[in-house]
Amino acid sequence: MLSNLIGKMPYYARTYNGLGNAYLNLKNYDQAINWYKKCISINKMYEHPYYGLGSIYSQLGNYDISI
Length: 67
Fold this sequence. Notes:
Layout: H1 2-8, H2 13-25, H3 29-42, H4 48-59, H5 63-66
């Protein structure tokens, strides 16, 4: 499970992105946003969480933020 990896690799951004993706698929946007932001805080150059955040904000109608 992804959450188990956090304890083993707390600075591995892809784990947090994976959790963000999982919550996005469940439409739990608050949790997805939190995990994507955590991913970005670890590795600002990793582009995938930005796509996830953009998708969420677009779905919520926050088009300015989504861009």
